[in-house]
């Protein structure tokens, strides 16, 4: 994907104002998507109480969004290239706003799950256009400043999202309980839709690739066949058909690989560019990204349930407890990119994995030692250690993965990186029924609920520690010192770019 924007003369003052308005609009949309993820995590126990949602529903409220978002990311980027980024962005933000309304007015848990899946699909149309619009609107010498602004938005979303979600839930505006966490998107989305039509300039890729709809269907089907039995298996008593369906998912993924090979040979526009996996650093990086997503998917959901259901804390207390973690991620991410990785290379990412594992071990020890009487300030140490470890990983990981990828494949590679991270996240959320709920009885007397959740939380954290150790080992296949992308590959041109698509993983 290329753009002639960098060769254009300096814009007239009127055009200059328009592009900065356009930037504000797309940044607001990105922030809306960012905050929506964190808000939902904080409000999950309130949704469970108010709607009578089962644990399976709770998993799908989060995993359904991640799955739809992952499955649609590359397709959303391609649609923008083909039909115009402005047009697809407006469709995405309009659909996201509508889906938010449906979530806010959901009459039962099933409607909420369906609306969340629609919301994830609309985010997959909206988010990939954001930095594509920036790339087409701003010349090369200004993009560094603009991407710095996006980094600030990511940090702001990481810190403010949980607190905003907690406040909206605690305030119980108009007696609506948790519903304002979705309804707050309506005025923002409507304003973005109106102003976006006026100020965003349309752009398309000069030679856009065709859509690989069969690839999208196979990826989505395979993930559903894997996730649905994992999510429902425990409450259904692990029926035989569940294992058969999960085994069938492997057949679907094998069919995907075979189809993508034929698709690449036929017209050169596969959903997954399989030749990328011949690059050792890319293949290892994709494995790291997927496994990292699994670990984060497990941690953030069980952490929320542990604090609010197990310990009985309010949404606001839980949200404020997470602030040290978010700040630590943001600070460490900035240091890793600017100071540490240029000097120490791959060792920084490996140190991040071990640091995060150490934080998890400290958390397990504290949860055991203090039990139900643990305080927020006592959680600060493990959360800061985990946040530092995560910050050391998330910021430089994409550059490390892409450093040996040729320029002509940078678009496909970047889209695939963000897609597999979201898929890993969805898989981790699906595994929660095994690693968390699988350790407790379905019908616990009131006094036993808290201790059972504490034990289940510790069990889940053991899995997260194992995941971080696996990531440390996988990182040995990354380049020792990530160089500039081969032949100058640019993630800024691609539909699935850091740092925005990293936002969900920063905050759960």
Account of the 3D structure:
There is one protein chain. This protein is mostly helical. It has three domains: 188 residues, Up-down Bundle (Growth Hormone, Chain: A), CATH 1.20.1250.20; 58 residues; 211 residues, Growth Hormone, Chain: A (Up-down Bundle), CATH 1.20.1250. Helices cover 76% and strands 0% of the residues. Helix 1 packs antiparallel against helix 4, helix 1 crosses helix 10 and helix 2 packs antiparallel against helix 8. It is globular, with a radius of gyration of 22 Å. The protein starts with 12 loop residues before the first helix and ends with a helix.
In short:
With 508 residues, the chain is mostly helical. It is built from 17 helices and no strands. It has 3 domains: 15-202, Up-down Bundle (Growth Hormone, Chain: A); 213-270; 273-483, MFS general substrate transporter like domains (Growth Hormone, Chain: A, Up-down Bundle).
Tags for this model:
508 residues, mainly alpha, Growth Hormone, Chain: A, 17 helices, 76% helix, disordered C terminus, transmembrane helix
Do you know the CATH topology of the largest domain? Growth Hormone, Chain: A
Distance between the termini: 30 Å
Approximate helicity band: over 70%
Give the CATH superfamily of the largest domain.
Answer: MFS general substrate transporter like domains
Query: SS-based structural class?
Result: mainly alpha
DSSP helical segment count: 17
Strand portion, in percent? Answer: under 5%
What ranges have pLDDT less than 50 throughout 5 or more consecutive residues? 1-10, 484-508
Query: What characterizes the major β-sheet?
Result: none
Please provide the ordered H/E string of secondary-structure elements: HHHHHHHHHHHHHHHHH
**Mean pLDDT across all residues, rounded?**
82
This entry's quaternary arrangement is single chain
User: Globular, elongated, flat, extended or rod-shaped: what is the shape?
Assistant: globular
The total domain count is 3
Number of strands: 0
């Amino acid at each position: 994907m290329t753009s002639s924007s960098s060769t254009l003369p300096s814009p007239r003052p009127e055009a200059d104002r328009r592009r900065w308005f356009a930037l504000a609009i797309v940044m607001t949309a990105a922030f809306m998507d960012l905050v929506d993820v964190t808000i939902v995590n904080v409000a999950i126990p309130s949704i469970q109480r108010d709607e009578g949602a089962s644990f399976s529903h709770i998993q799908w409220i989060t995993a359904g969004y991640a799955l739809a978002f992952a499955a649609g990311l590359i397709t959303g980027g391609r649609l923008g290239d083909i039909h115009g980024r402005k047009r697809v962005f407006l469709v995405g933000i309009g659909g996201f706003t509508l889906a938010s309304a449906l979530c806010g007015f959901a009459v039962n848990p099933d409607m909420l799950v369906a609306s969340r899946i629609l919301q994830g699909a609309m985010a997959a149309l909206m988010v990939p256009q954001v930095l594509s619009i920036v790339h087409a609107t701003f010349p090369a010498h200004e993009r560094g400043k603009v991407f710095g602004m996006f980094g600030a938005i990511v940090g702001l979303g990481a810190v403010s999202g949980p607190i905003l979600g907690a406040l909206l839930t605690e305030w119980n505006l108009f007696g609506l309980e948790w519903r304002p966490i979705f309804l707050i998107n309506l005025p923002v989305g409507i304003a973005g839709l109106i102003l976006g039509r006026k100020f965003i300039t349309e752009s398309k890729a000069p030679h856009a690739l065709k859509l690989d709809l069969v690839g999208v269907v196979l990826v989505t089907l395979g993930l559903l066949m894997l996730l649905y039995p994992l999510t429902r298996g425990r409450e259904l008593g692990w029926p035989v058909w569940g294992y058969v369906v999960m085994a069938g998912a492997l057949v679907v993924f094998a069919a995907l690989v075979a189809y993508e090979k034929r698709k690449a040979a036929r017209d050169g526009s596969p959903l997954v560019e399989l030749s990328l996996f011949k690059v050792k650093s890319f293949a290892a990086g994709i494995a790291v990204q997927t496994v990292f997503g699994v670990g984060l998917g497990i941690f953030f959901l069980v952490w929320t349930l542990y604090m609010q259901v197990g310990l009985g804390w309010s949404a606001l207390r839980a949200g404020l407890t997470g602030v040290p973690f978010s700040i630590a991620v943001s600070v460490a991410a900035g240091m890793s990119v600017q100071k540490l990785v240029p000097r120490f290379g791959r060792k920084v990412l490996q140190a991040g994995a071990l640091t995060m594992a150490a934080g998890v071990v400290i958390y397990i020890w504290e949860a055991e030692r203090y039990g139900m009487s643990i305080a927020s300030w006592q959680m600060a140490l493990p959360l800061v250690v985990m946040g530092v470890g995560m910050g050391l990983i998330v910021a430089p990981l994409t550059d490390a993965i892409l450093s040996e990828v040729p320029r002509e494949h940078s678009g496909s590679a970047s889209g695939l990186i963000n897609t597999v991270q979201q898929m890993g996240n969805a898989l981790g959320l699906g595994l929660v029924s095994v690693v968390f709920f699988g350790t407790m009885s379905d019908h616990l007397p009131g006094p036993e609920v808290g201790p059972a959740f504490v034990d289940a939380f510790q069990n889940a954290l053991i899995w997260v520690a194992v995941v971080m150790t696996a990531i440390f080992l996988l990182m040995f296949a990354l380049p020792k010192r990530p160089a500039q992308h081969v032949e100058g590959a640019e993630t800024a041109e691609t539909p699935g770019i850091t740092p925005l698509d990293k936002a969900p993983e920063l905050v759960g």
